[in-house]
Amino acid sequence: MAGEQKAKAKTEQAKGKAKEAAGRAVGNERLEAEGRAQQSKGDARQAKEKTKDVFKH
Length: 57
Prior knowledge:
With 57 residues, the protein is mainly alpha-helical. It has helices at 2-26, 29-56.
């Protein structure tokens, strides 16, 4: 389960980066902001999983 959540976090971060880059390329500030928000969500999920790992051991 933890591995699945870590993979989701990485996927979310990658999608966010792609969205941000696409928004920047076409000059769409909203798309850029959505990308940054999605990356932040992925970062938060990853931090949560890392915290779980610390307390697991």
